[in-house]
Amino acid sequence: MGYWLKNYPTYYKLLATIVICLVLVQSAKAESIDAVNVASIPVVGPSNQWHNIVFNPIDDQQLYLSYGNGEVRVVDIEHSTNEVLLKLSKHVPDNNFQSLTAFALHPSFHHKNQLGYLTFYTAHTEKQSAKNQHRPSINSIELKETNVDLIVNEWQLNDKVFNTVEPNSKREILRLSTSEPENSINQLSFNPYVKTWHENYGYLYISIIGGKSLSNHPLLSGSILRISPTKFGLRQYTVPNDNPFQNNDKINNEIIATGLGKIHQFFWQKARTNSLFISQAEQNRQSVFQVNYGNDWRQSRPKALAQLEGDSNQTFTAVYRGKSTPAFWQHHLRLISSDGWQLETITNLAQGNVSQRKWPIRNKNLTTQRNLSLLLDQNSEPWLFSPVNGNLLKLVTDIDSGLNDEAKISETKQPEPQQSRSIITFLLAIAISAAAVLIVYTLKHSSKNSTKAQLKRQYTRLEFSVGNNLVSMFKGQETTPSIELTTDNVAQSEILLNENSLNIINQSQGFNHVQEAAINEKIAQDYRQKMVDDKVRKLTVIITTKNKKKHEVCLYLRKGNNRLTKPSYEESLTLLLDWCWFIAMAISPDDTEARDTSKLPTLPSRKKRIRVPSEPITYIHKTVPTNTAVKTNSDHKPNDYVDEPSTIDRQTTIQSDSELINSLEKLVKFKEQGILTEAEFNQAKAKLLKDLVQN
Predict the structure, then answer these.
(1) pTM
(2) Which has the higher per-residue pLDDT, 454 or 375?
(3) Is the pLDDT of residue 124 over 80?
């Protein structure tokens, strides 16, 4: 420390002090979240009967709420309405209905003309009676006396009269019987990470809470079932061929894990592994376990992956994949109420070294709330819902800009204390001082930190081979690679355009044509911008190894009119997309589509420059008599003359070029306005060029 104080200039010390202060202030600010009240939903019925809430994937202004009394309601945020969609008790005869226990939408709910469109599922319990004795579709092995049935039904909405259940659309999927009042179906879910092109798309997962007296029963000891709810002949559902207990006559084929006890919730982390996570509620904490398909825990239970403090009734969300808060990316979210309401982010569950972080939620009205629920919308952004007063709140970080204007105005109308204004003024003064110091620092060290100097310290060439899964990185003009990696050692690849993230590929995030099109679109937008005022254009790949070491490869760098890397922008784009497909197939094959090689990356056409001479060109034409010998050189034979281009020909050429440029500019404009699709644009451009060649 003494050496630093003695040998470094004063402005260095001042700069370091200011930067540290700003980092500490920014860190304190970033570690909290605002809860902004977006809507108030009319409260109907007792709040303790509220069960579940789901955003409508077709209309982001609507939600579906399910209640224990058997009602499924549709809520319209814009119009503040809360109407009954389904009253399940009317569909159960002889007043045998007991309770609605689970509700779920089919993953193709919003995909028109696909199986599962406008389809949802409910689970409920009902009493058995002499008049109402249905044969269970799943036999409760070794259980003779029963008095309660657990039922899963499928329902269909009317596609013409929206948010109306289609008459006679009820279809009983499965029914099982029990004698234990603690047994119930508490969750219906579809794996959110399974895509439509996967074989296991549309499989319904069902969890049954275990009862104390049936702890050794294969079905009712706490189990998770997996079925395909699609009707097949006379069967109301089918059992997937890869269910693990197909050849075990003592365990039902529908079961994928048993002996799990009191399951509070189950959820996934990624699609390709045959495992999931379950949480079990205990007093003031939750235990999280990893369950592999085929596990039987009736005799012994594994050690929990994590013991999480907080409200035991709260549930985990799916992995966050939104855009507003990068710090939440690939984390599970959980709501806890210790020391005020907090949002907890959780990751590394599968690895066992669970990482947690808590974010205080700022909203003075939440301090009196005792019952809140956390949910994600269609864009994977977090929301809060209070069944007591019907408040729907959006969780917003400083990065988020997705609020409507009314929500922002309502938040800024509250007067700030004088102390807060003084702090803001003080921080603003510090920021201005820091900016002045940074300018001095930049001027003194511009040569050391110039663009060329930075490029010399980076890798500028990337090579990879599909045959041996080898990745090589080179610096400058090197002929031998500085670093060689195998794809087995690669944990993540990130693509940056001008230091902005375009795409991330890792073991839980593959690559597809939608992401390829998004990269092309972003690069095309940047390509249209003029390189003026020393503007920098940079394409970078950041490769992170499994030991968390990062390697940065600069594929393309241009500053103003000077290109500092050898490959052209189009060549770099082609290499970039080839890399994305290559590494995605290597580290996340199950989440990666098959590549369509006919879709090649294209960059928008630029306006062709026509150089017009500042002064008229004078052509000299000498007439040579026929009887005069002509001196020749190696490039011309005798009597080979260069005809003088006429003024009309030159004017026609310039006019044709101008017409071509105008036509191409119109096509590009139509494409940007959405009038032409990509295919129509390419077809029109090809026809235009063909007509030019023929003329």
Answers:
(1) 0.57
(2) 375
(3) yes
pLDDT in tens, 474-504: 887 788 888 888 888 899 999 999 888 888 9
Instruction: Kindly report the CATH class assigned to 92-275+285-304.
Output: mainly beta
pLDDT at 569 over 50: yes
User: Do residues 573 and 567 lie in contact, with contact meaning Cβ atoms separated by under 8 Å?
Assistant: no
Reference 507, options 593, 584, 595; nearest CA is: 584
Q: Are 295 and 269 in contact (CB under 8 A)?
A: no
**475, two tokens:** 């610096």
Residue 351: how many CA atoms within 13 Å on its side-chain side?
A: 7
275-282, strands of its sheet edge to edge: 265-267, 275-282, 285-292, 306-309
CA atoms of 392 and 254, how far apart (whole Å): 38
Place of tokens 């809140």: 372
Question: Can you tell me which residue has the tokens 């999931």?
Answer: 276
* Structure tokens, 167: 């008459």
CA distance 583 to 599: 18
Residue 180, token pair as written in the block? 């234990």
Axis-axis angle for helices 10-30, 418-444 (nearest 10): 140
Q: What's the CA angle centered on 532, arms 527 and 533, to 5 degrees?
A: 140
Closest CA to 41 of 4, 82, 96: 82
Q: Report the C-alpha gap between 309 and 286 in whole angstroms.
A: 7
Residue 203 confidence (pLDDT) above 60:
yes
What pLDDT is attached to residue 561?
81
CB 160 within 8 Å of CB 136: no
Banded model confidence at residue 648, pLDDT cuts 50, 70, 90: very low
How is 620-646 classified by DSSP, letter by letter? Answer: ------TTS-----TT--TT---PPPP
